Amino acid sequence: MSPRASGATKRRRTIPAIDRLGGLLLGLVAGFALLLLVAPSLIVIAISFEPRAFISFPPSGFSLRWYWAVFENRQLTDSILVSLEVATLVMLAALLLGVPAAFASVRGTFPGKAGANAFLLAPQMMPGMVIGIAMLFFGAYVGFRASDLMLVVALTVFCIPFTIRIVMARLAGLDPRLDEASANLGAGPAETFLRVTVPQLGPALLAAAAFTFIEAFDNVTVALFTSDVRGRPLPVELYYLVQNDSTPAIAAISAMEIMLSFVVMLVIARTVGLERLGR
């Protein structure tokens, strides 16, 4: 065998070994990253079952005591109801405003379209604290005090880019010829939108609604500056509770929020399929 052929054979043997080593290293890095993301949530869930009246990990036993304590606390249950109400209103407002905005961004042709798109998506690039403080100063300037309404407005401003981006991604993958066919069959723009476009947007609308609801329900940075002190949402109530309480009730509430997010994502994955959202 010539030296050139021998060298080629060695290279062919070396390449699969390098590929296997690279795959192993990539798997280890991905597993470590996943552990860093999941471990804090698992620790919080484990602490929530601690039977004693202080936070301890690993827990000394298993008890649902602090889950019952959450629902026996009137202040916490009122905060949960406020958060549910606010999150629902924000979700509806984001859909009502975000879907037409996404439709105009993808299908519309008008001067300044690029600038309008940047303006609509700008809140996504701002920290929630900046939006919260801006809304607080704006409210003080126009005489609009912190309230549930201000909280809904501020969270809608903060969350609407999520809706716009998700719906835009879905709209970009739709065939515009379907709308043209509907128009050729005599349907008007409104009927075409409701009977042709909206059904195709179903996966994106469901995902946008879920993400917006979870973000509005869990958001503390915006709510801290815009919520009413007489009816604080759950994230703000937890913020103050952490400063004065060290019982596993805090972990129990956090565990319920984690499980709520997991259930919502599981429902989307089973009914819609996460891989379809960007199509």
From TrEMBL:
One GO-annotated biological process of the protein: transmembrane transport
Top-level division of the source organism's lineage: Bacteria
InterPro entries according to UniProt: MetI-like, MetI-like_sf
Organism from which the protein derives: Falsiroseomonas bella
GO-annotated cellular components: plasma membrane
Transmembrane annotation, as ranges: 21-49, 86-106, 118-143, 149-168, 246-269
Annotated ABC transmembrane type-1 domain residues: 80-268
Keyword Transport listed: yes
Name of the featured protein: ABC transporter permease
Gene3D superfamilies: MetI-like
Annotated membrane topology: Multi-pass membrane protein
Cellular compartments annotated: Cell inner membrane; Cell membrane
